[in-house]
Amino acid sequence: MTSHHAVILGAGAAGTAAARALAGQEGIKATIVGQTDETPYTRMLIKGVAYGSSSPELIRLPMPQADFIADTAEHVDFESRTVHLASGTTIAYDSLVVATGSQARGLEANVPGAQQAARAGTLVALHSLADAMQLREAILACGRNARVAIYGAGLTASETASALQAQGHEVSLIARSKIPGVATFGRSVAERIAAHHQSRVSTFFGRVISEIHPIPDATVVTLDDGTDLIVDLVIIALGTTPVAPAPWRKGEGVDVDDRLHAHGLEGVYAAGGVAVHHDHHLGTWRIDHWDDGAAQGTHAARMLLHSLDRGEDPGPYRPRSAYMAMIYGRMIAGVGYTGYPDTPIDRSGEEFIVLHEHGDAVVGQVALMQSGRCISGDSASMRPIPRGRHRRRLRRSCQSGPDEDHARVTGDRDVSESPRRHRRRTTSHGGPPACAPSPTRIVVSCSQWVDRLLPPDQRACDGSRDHRRPPSPSMPFSRSPDTGPRPRQTLSKREGVTMPRLSRLTPETAVGASRDLLGELVGRHAHVGDMVSTMAHSPAVLGGYLQLSRSMRRAKLDRKISERISIAVQAQQGCRLCLQSHVAAARSLGISDEGIELAHAGSSADASLAAIIVLGLQVYREPMSITDEQIDNLRAHGYSDREVADVVGIVALNILTGAFNLLAGLTPGNAD
């Protein structure tokens, strides 16, 4: 059988995800082409290298089962279907996935002194591993708390300002907009973040850098209003521009349709930061973050397989991947595309959520919440939604179906008694919610929201599911003649908060071994948590959890270290209930907000802690990537073999609890 050669340009999130989706396919050979003299790494973890103590070796990216060539692609010849590499060699392809990513957008070329500062190492970006290493060296070279100017105030700039300020550095934040971050977070969240910036660092909003020039032992940054800032280091964080080989033009990226086909090129796909999307749903857009890049890479590979009759059509790509950031002790959690104007559900408290809408669909959501705080249904986040235009627009963001909404608004106990009256008053998307749901609960389920709120033919949002498949069992649909399919979901007595998918059991309602286990726990503690009472549906799972949990109490690894590992793992796994629990536990143990933020990013300011946290992430994500040298390094840091082995138990316990909570639908909004 003739082998089909799929060449993947790029070894980042999108490229490796595409290769994994193609791995094991009979008759298909995948080759990843990376950068010359560069070992692939996880870009989302470079912050731990920049202002933590992670070494580059600890964030290297495990490679899928595919051939790998470290030789930069410079030119693609579409007629001959060959890729010309930097070494002068060529590689032929049958299908091509361009996933070459992006680069940091630099200062304008006409800014005096910028090139001189870059050569001196006092003007840096934070986009690549090389940037992170340069930034760390520049900070260490100061020999004291550094004076740092950050130009930009988006996600990377805000996280960097927060982390450096927590470490005691003197931060000046410069942004061209008077309300920076609107394009990233939406105006409502951006205003809150701007206020936090202004209360913690020196801010210069609505200003641009007009000149940079060195003086002995420092650098002077001159703004357009004549203000001079004397700093040790300037970090440029002005976003990114796509990077693609010729014949694509520099900085323009690869234009793709909603199936990730490159325009006018047979057998060519693009994914990740290099892809510029053009579709009827969002128009022209581009997203450059790790999780969405991976989702695009998987989708492109599935489209490739479909073109070869090796799989079903994955449908149009819709951005629905989540991202998280820790900024001054607050968690920013978003999903989907947030480039359109936002509608706040609640702006009266410190914790709130905004919806990003385009036409009749919610295409993205962003939530701002206090890290480590459990948000209950009766908190400030449950205030009634304002009436008028915003309330009408928010109908389409409703968590429940029309009948349930009618019951909430009218007080009808039995929705089956008045469905027709309700249908005359609402759209098929559902009526206005009575109260704003908990931000945390929304973040957990918002990827499902974005998918459900699209028209039926647009619900394939990533490479994980087919738009023609039936809905998830957790989201059953009912059909009526005049409203069509609609989601049905049970509501709790606290309006707007969804109930868990699995019911809680008691010693009286549990059966088999679970009855005895729950009875013993209630007799000993008088109360059991929601996770344990829900786990009782499976005596095997409940018994296994209790046994592992009790066994891990005998772990030798220090509790502060295990909580840091747990935070890093849950930040990856996505269980908000677990994450908030471990953040609260870390704070009770005296771990600082800085330590928690770095653990959330998979690192620590202490080299020995960073090494063991990264090991935990590798155990969670790719244990095959663990090396002999890595274990020797842990021993050199003073960890015993017993403590190293304990990491597996800690990660296993987190996987069990996190996966169960996600499956059962337990969130901070509905769990005690």
Strand content: 15-25%
Outline type: globular
Helix content: 25-40%
Number of helices: 21
Count of β-strands: 28
Query: What average pLDDT do the residues reach?
Result: 80
Structural class: alpha/beta
Radius of gyration from the alpha-carbon trace, in angstroms: 26 Å
The quaternary structure here is: single chain
Compute the separation of the termini in Å. 58 Å
Low-confidence stretches: 372-497
Could you list some keywords that capture this structure?
672 residues; 28 strands; globular
Element layout with pairings:
Elements: E1 4-9, H1 13-22, E2 28-34, H2 46-51, E3 67-70, E4 73-77, E5 82-85, E6 90-92, E7 95-98, E8 102-104, H3 114-120, E9 123-125, H4 129-142, E10 147-151, H5 155-166, E11 170-175, H6 182-185, H7 187-200, E12 202-205, E13 209-215, E14 218-223, E15 228-231, E16 233-236, E17 240-242, E18 254-256, E19 268-270, E20 275-279, E21 283-285, H8 290-307, E22 322-327, E23 330-336, E24 342-344, E25 352-358, E26 361-370, H9 389-393, H10 402-410, H11 419-423, H12 439-452, E27 477-480, E28 484-487, H13 513-525, H14 530-535, H15 539-552, H16 559-573, H17 576-588, H18 593-600, H19 607-621, H20 628-636, H21 641-664
